[in-house]
Amino acid sequence: MSSIKDSVHDHIAVEGVTEDLLDTPALQRLRRITQLGTASFVYPSANHTRFEHSLGVYHLANEALGHLGIEGPQAERVRAAALLHDIGHTPFSHNTEDVLEREAGKSHDDVHDLIRGSPVERVLVGHDIDPDRVADLIAGDGELGQLVSGELDVDRMDYLVRDAHHTGVPYGTIDHGRLVRELRLVGGELVLAEGNVQSAESLLLARALMNPTVYSHHVARISKAMLRRATDELVGEVPVETFRRWDDYELMVALRDEPATSEYARRLDERDLFKRAVWAEYADVPDEYITADFEQRQAWERDIAARAGVSPDDVILDVPGEPSMKESSTQVVVNGEVRELGTQSTLVSALQTVQREQWRLGVYAPADETDAVGVATEDVLGLDLDALVVDVRQGIHQTLDEYGA
């Protein structure tokens, strides 16, 4: 048995299959995949990796298994799945995941093909563990798959606390010890035991507060959009399966070496980021722009660039998906019955309202082109200029970027 010192959970003990999995290439690659991608442009200390997060998820899963009374081969499969749950992440984590989904039709938790024929498979088979069943757990399948990927998963419990620790933003601090202790399996569903509505609310509130402060901070969104645009262009030249197995460093080298993406790489290297030309609220954006597919958004970007008289490379349309809150379906026991948190907590509806209020459509461009791009966006998308959310006006479309970006 080995003991690993962790910045969040103190000492994490690893033994058996998990100890043998640690030195496989798939796990070691996660040392070179940052947990928060480009968020370090906002929070310089946010350089923690998917490797340490995976250790934390394994640790919390192990704790949960003990409280649930699950032992033997079933527990070993869950421990392995918890440790391996992020091996399908592309470089810079979620920042480039859209590229994988679009080009390969896979999400980061679809890892059957990554495990098959790999050292990970050999380790699992050597411990009499079915690799396909482990991959199924990573995808959230089955009763215990909820522990690895679900509304009450230990993945979320670890990343909130870990991201808060490394960014210095305290909003993600939750009582993960209590949450793990209060997990129960009832009728095949992972639920929180009686008396834990507030515990479930705390998880939801932490996520709601961390989102605008860290995960969707406007500088993080701009840099992510630039990285995603560059990666989209690169994957046209590089097989998606090659890209899928790269780490952060390999992707940046490739972006620097490819003429079509080298300027994006330079800007990211030097933190010479685009600025906001438009930052529009949810209520002011027609549904057709929110639900549009990738090709349609590309067409709008080209039209905006042409109308503004700038290069198509200098316009990025960034449209988040519909506001959603999966955590509202978290199952809690109330008066002996399993109920959805959304039916028991008025806080859920309040946070859903806040989420819609925080939603923004962004259009980004180099600093000296934001005015022209803002006007062109109004023309092409038919948005009302008075409805565009701008914080301070410089010329026509001034924003707070000068203070934070």
Protein architecture, described:
- The chain has 405 residues and is mainly alpha-helical.
- The protein is 51% helix and 10% strand.
- The chain has 22 helices and 9 strands.
- It has helices at residues 17-21, 25-29, 50-68, 72-84, 97-104, 112-115, 119-126, 131-138, 145-148, 154-167, 176-181, 197-215, 218-235, 240-244, 248-257, 262-270, 287-290, 294-308, 341-344, 346-358, 370-381, 401-404; strands at residues 2-6, 10-14, 183-186, 189-192, 275-281, 316-318, 331-334, 337-340, 360-365.
- Helix 3 packs across helix 10 (154-167), helix 15 (248-257) crosses helix 16 and helix 18 (294-308) crosses helix 21 (370-381).
- The longest helix has 19 residues, at 50-68.
- The radius of gyration is 22 Å and the shape is globular.
Mean pLDDT: 92
- Portion of residues within helices: 40-55%
In terms of quaternary structure, the protein is single chain
Intertermini distance = 46 Å
Strand order of the largest sheet: 5-9-6
Q: What is the molecular shape?
A: globular
- CA-based gyration radius: 22 Å
| Low-confidence residue ranges | 389-405
Major pleated sheet = 3 strands, antiparallel
Measured by DSSP, the beta-strand proportion falls in 5-15%
**What is the number of strand segments?**
9
The computed structural class is: mainly alpha
What is the helix tally? 22
